[in-house]
Write a structure and sequence with these properties.
- The structure is a homodimer of 215-residue chains.
- With 215 residues, chain A is mostly helical.
- Chain A is built from ten helices and no strands.
- Chain A is elongated and about 65 Å long.
- The structure holds a DNA duplex (30 and 30 nucleotides).
DNA sequence: TTGTTTGTACTGACCGGTCAGTCCAAAGTG
DNA sequence: CACTTTGGACTGACCGGTCAGTACAAACAA
């Protein structure tokens, strides 16, 4: 990745600083809940328990803060996907399904955080710098999922895929986007439960059709 | 639906008025592109070629305008789904796939408009009135898709579904949400083309696994 | 025919308020 | 000393919304 925080001429950011971490966390949640424009620097400062001045002290601008939030989310996702697909011992469609299920659990657990992704394209549309970062974000995530598919399936199962791994990766990301949107809409526990049921249907049907039978 | 524009004590809206139609169209596109908070009344007025005052003359508030945009989108979706699934002559998985493909084309064609849906939950989160309308929107759309599935498949094919029609409807809406998000991210023609390919994969795999073989 | 009234569409100027961002003096901290 | 943190005052831009007033055509009255 090569020190992405040093490009674009942004000032260096001390990520180990406790306040910086608090601000990043508060900002991620606030952006996820209310969107980029719907979140004020004051709200972020309040939720982080620091002064507004300090936020401006650590981050050049709101755009910079958003960028760093984005960057951290990418790091989290990458490290999670790496961890999830590290072991090379799973070699069946059922294990593949389980990996998808675990990915879903990850999304649900960090939903407030991950929802920021739905905001990326809105901000990117009138901000070239952020648009570039979104593109990087997407391609790095895609590469990581492809690698994860290789790790989870191994060469033997990989041969049985009816479409190439790259297309499987794109497919997984697309249905996960659908899950995120549906969850954003769902209000109340039964609604969330129904969304989970729906995603399980998607997962089961796709897995079933994704592998050629053993010849 | 019963004259939805008369509920909530909103002033009646002359939908035949040329300016009103221009404003609604401009607002739908602007909300779809930049989100609710990212769109100002001034921008909408400019794009509609009218004064900001006129927008406030026809619509009580920004919230009211958003509500009317939502209402019109619901009308369009309902009438489109009705039209798409009217004929009862299709009775094969291939025809089912084609109906999904047509729905995709509809989404792509009106994407700028439909993208507003991604914004609904953001606005609804801190606006009870809009939250109620979103819930109505969702349930009416769901009912319409279920009815459409019945029409497209007919009793014979309906029996072969491995999950009930209601779950199929939720599944379709979820993967369409994924499509909309992916399209929102896609920049450039090849990117859009790749998203289409991905959605085709989803559609094909799901359709393949969705029907029991003829016994 | 001429004048009056009424209703609708529409506008520019303006108001109160919010927001991102700046500046700075002061205080704590390692 | 250098770094971090606070709080407060301030600016310029923008935003949603209001308001007085214009334009105009149809209906009505003399």
């Amino acid at each position: 990745m090569g020190n992405p925080e040093h490009i674009d001429g942004l000032s260096t950011l001390n990520r180990d600083n406790r306040s910086v971490r608090k601000i990043l966390l508060a900002a991620a949640r606030a952006f996820g809940r209310s969107g980029y424009r719907g979140t004020s620097m004051q709200q972020i400062a309040d939720r982080a328990g620091v002064s507004k001045s300090l936020v401006h002290y650590h981050f050049d601008s709101k755009e910079h803060l958003f960028l760093e939030v984005q960057l951290e989310l990418l790091r989290e996702l990458l490290s999670y996907v790496r961890e999830l697909t590290r072991s090379g011992a799973r070699r069946s469609p059922a294990q593949f399904e389980q990996a998808i299920e675990e990915a879903r659990d990850f999304v649900v657990r960090d939903l407030e955080h991950i929802r920021v992704m739905l905001e990326f394209h809105n901000v990117a549309r009138d901000n070239a710098r952020i648009a570039g970062h979104v593109a990087t974000f997407q391609s790095e995530l895609m590469a990581m999922v492809v690698e994860g598919i290789h790790n989870v399936l191994g060469p033997s199962m990989l041969e049985r895929l009816v479409i190439p791994p790259e297309r499987v990766a794109r497919l997984l990301l697309q249905i996960l986007n659908g899950l995120i949107v549906d969850l954003a809409y769902a209000q109340g526990d039964e609604a969330v439960q129904r969304v989970h049921e729906t995603f399980s249907d998607v997962r089961a049907l796709i897995t079933q059709a994704l592998f050629n039978p053993l010849s």
